[in-house]
Amino acid sequence: MATQKSASKPTRWRNWSDSVRGTPRAVYLPRGIDELAQAMGRYSREGRHVRVVGDGHSFTPLAQTDDVLISLDNMQGVIAIDAERGTARVQAGTRLRLLGDQLLKHGLAQENLGDIDVQSIAGAISTGTHGTGIRFGSIATQVVGLTLVAASGEVIQCSETERPDIFKAAQVSLGALGVIAEVTLRVMPAKRLRFVSRRERVDDVLANLERYKWENSHFEFFWMPYTPWAQVKFLNETDDPPSKGNVFGTLNKIVLENGLYWVLSETARIARPATRTISRVSAMGIATVSETDYSHRLFATPRAVKFQEMEYNIPAADFPAVLAEVRAVMKREKFNVHFPIECRFVQSDDIWLSPAYQRESAYIAIHMYKGMPYERYFRAIEPIYQPYGGRPHWGKMHTLDGATLATRYPHWDDFRRVRAALDPNGVFLNDYLRRLLDADTPVAPALGASTGESSPTL
Ligand SMILES: Cc1cc2nc3c(=O)[nH]c(=O)nc-3n(C[C@H](O)[C@H](O)[C@H](O)COP(=O)(O)OP(=O)(O)OC[C@H]3O[C@@H](n4cnc5c(N)ncnc54)[C@H](O)[C@@H]3O)c2cc1C
Question: Which fold has domain 192-392?
Fold first, then answer.
């Protein structure tokens, strides 16, 4: 959030990629749980609608509102460490980078992260944000307890043992259950990782896929469209001291992956037929990089070049077949796209609305440079995932409606039931969530889950 103070005048708000805009009537930044709980009770009594935002890095209109927008920017930092249990209680607005730095002061770390670190911890867990590593779950799997402020202002503690239904729904909740005020995370001793990145032929990557997945703690690759090349990234634990590797590593991230990439992307936007050439030039620019640092600093990469994104979760076993279909459609349709296709792997979990629910998962993400048309590309790729039971990343673009999502998530109706119980008047619903969750349809087993209304977000 750019706004640092509570504001009672309409304020313009937009998300990171500018795919979502809103003009909240009021922006509220509480300084603690008591203040937040009182405000929620008041908003409910006044019949206001409330959305809560983290850092606005979701591409979908989850945080969009023209009424009250709550930001926990003033509620950041580690509250307490329980060394015996290996947990850290943190304020829900804490940005991941700050969290990593504060945990490191205690010799601790989160076991895995995604590829940026600017999100709030509550925002990251609420959409099922994940990194890569087949032995690691999404960030929400690190959560062992939550403090939630419900629409009524009631402060609810939940965990695997305390109100477990609310907990299973709140671990990935799209901000639809209430405001998460505090998060208790399972943490581990701080570790250093060696990061290696290099160019490889994508067919070689696919031939070595199982080995790469299982022999490395964290493995991902980016296929450069219309080229035989991929950038492969590996992260593995090391006892080596932190070193920035070669200067070229840092230079690569700042200059090549951001500065030069922006110039190439602008060229693609202005001269669209050049996109395939630009993809080939980008592939040639993939440097061999090796560096060592504390884990939270190496998971994240600066992302200055803006884009729109669609990412789907599919069963890991189906990944080679699905990627082959994606490549075939791209070859046939010749979309003007130079942004790479990102492939990651995540352990299965038991969180109701987690895309990795009860399946070892692969994620495939497609991107389009901001300002270039993305709809035709995203709409052509999205159907490929459907026969494989694809589940969209909650923070990224998709067109699935509640009826389809209900078939993908065994606990869909359980989630809806918890939501309806915690927020019967729909204080936390915006138009997008109302459609997505079919929130106007009563939740009763005999009625099923859906009205079949569509919720396009492309
Ligand atoms: C450049 C870029 C890189 C990304 N990289 C990755 C990646 O590597 N892996 C991945 O999985 N995703 C990735 N994402 C997606 C991103 O992690 C998610 O969209 C994440 O939810 C954004 O966090 P945020 O703090 O910005 O939350 P927002 O986008 O502001 O909000 C997300 C959701 O969380 C809810 N929320 C926020 N705070 C609270 C709270 N206190 N209580 C209750 N609900 C709350 C909001 O209401 C909303 O529903 C990326 C996005 C971008 C733009």
Answer: Vanillyl-alcohol Oxidase; Chain A, domain 3 (3.40.462)
Minimum CA distance residue for ligand 1 atom 32: 123
Return the CATH class of domain 78-189: alpha beta
Map out the domains of the chain as residue ranges.
78-189, 192-392
The preferred substitution site among 110, 117, 126 for testing ligand 1, maximizing ligand atoms within 8 Å of CB, is 126
Ligand 1 lined by 95 (C-beta under 6 Å)? no
Q: Give the tens place of pLDDT for each residue, 94-130.
A: 999 999 999 999 999 999 999 999 999 999 999 999 9
- pLDDT, one tens digit per residue, over 25-51 is 999 999 999 999 999 999 999 999 999
| Residue nearest to ligand 1 atom 34, measured at CA | 123
Return the H-helix or E-strand segment holding 89: strand 87-91
Separation of CA 428 and ligand 1 centre (Å)? 17
The residues near 107 (Cβ < 8 Å, ≥ 6 apart) are 189, 190
Q: How far apart are CA 152 and CA 17, in angstroms?
A: 33
CATH topology identical between 78-189 and 192-392? no
CB 251 within 8 A of CB 271: no
